[in-house]
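Running co-folding for PM9.
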Amino acid sequence: MEAQPRKRSWAEPFKIKMVELVKMTSLEEREAAIIEAGFNTFLLKSKDVYIDLLTDSGTSAMSDRQWAGMMMGDESYAGSENFYHLEKTIQDYYGYKHVVPTHQGRAAEHIISQILIKSGDVIPGNMYFTTTKLHQELAGGQFADIIIDEAHDPESEHPFKGDVDLNRLQALIEKHGADKIPYVCIATAVNMAGGQPISLGNLRELRELTQKHGIMIIHDMTRVAENAYFIKQREKGYQDKSTAEIVKEICSLTDGATMSAKKDALVNIGGFLAVNDEEIFDKARNMVVVYEGLHTYGGMAGRDMEALAIGIKESILDDHQRARIGQVQYLGDKLIAMGVPVVRPIGSHGVFLDAKKFLPHLSQDEFPAQTLAAELYLDSGVRAMERGVVSAGRNSETGQHNYPKLELVRLTIPRRVYTQAHMDVVAESVEEVYLKREKIRGLRMVYEPEYLRFFQARFERIVG
Ligand code: PM9
């Protein structure tokens, strides 16, 4: 019998130089805090949180080199050195020709939506993202989901649940006509599906189909390097390619990108729009001065652009991704071993609890994922994020809730911040809540803002 290779661990490729102290809270303190926050983890004060898994957005730890870069900030109003370093880094590592810096991802989404979308247009995408879809709608467009069906099934083990169903796109083109589809929006490491990757094989086929109809592909590259690492692990023919090479290949199959640099790219703030087309670039460069700032800073300080240029170079290193994806997988494997229902396979930036299966006695009108996130906080001070019916918002025509198939709680892991022991504490807390799940009651929404309601909505416990 052939010997199996011995399992080797994924330990972090860094050592810790500075720490931030966090407070442990009592159950009474947490009960008071969650009531004050209207059972919305976005409204908790961070001082009341022990392990913060709300998001991986802007929460990663920067390296000593990035901090050193901050000291090299050139804060000139125009023509900052750091902008040119950032621009060259984006050109070298991602391959896009033109760069417009923005303060974060949604600002880039705003600009590209306003430039490319006309009223009545349809924008197909591999699952919606909250801010992306809203900007498409505000520009007069309508989002159409073309992700494969497996992405909506938490139990499907499909290795590339971010793939596009090309037949679905073909049907949309036939129904609306290619001139009503300004671009297809493709996310790498699809957030709302559980951080699931798209394969290069699928992206190549998509490229062929869209090119045939003169439709562009705009890439939401927020977590492109994490997607690339999954391709390296799972897609035939890519095992010997580096994450960096795969990132560049992904970008080469698209016409432009919006980036929230607060995730993959390891900075606390920042983003950009990158495009290859000269005319679109010209419009974007003009628009950025209206909404963000001059085109050589676009809402970022010089020091932030420097930290971002360095962060991009660190994000595409194989060793970084091995530990990053390894840590998320570690938490996922623990929860699976405990029998907790989670989205499979474990994704890029967090473990997603399946709240429909966790709390089957609650209907979606009782907000199971919102409830579960609040219960988890109550148990241990671990803060997670709802990604279910609250995040999905309302149908703009009927005014009814959108009821997504996936009703999830995201345990999002910031990069380079928490240890394996933190992951153990999180898993034990989830297990504790799982053991008492039958006693958990749902929530009622008592305040609902008009846009992106998940950020600010308030809830009360259903009693009686
Ligand atoms: N994502 C997240 O926690 C930030 C808060 S929720 C809106 O996952 C993608 C795929 C994202 C994303 C933000 C944005 C917007 C665009 N695309 O937050 O504006 O995950 O930088 O980016 C969050 P900004």
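Result summary
The first helix runs from residue 27 to 36.
The longest strand covers residues 98-102.
Job closed.
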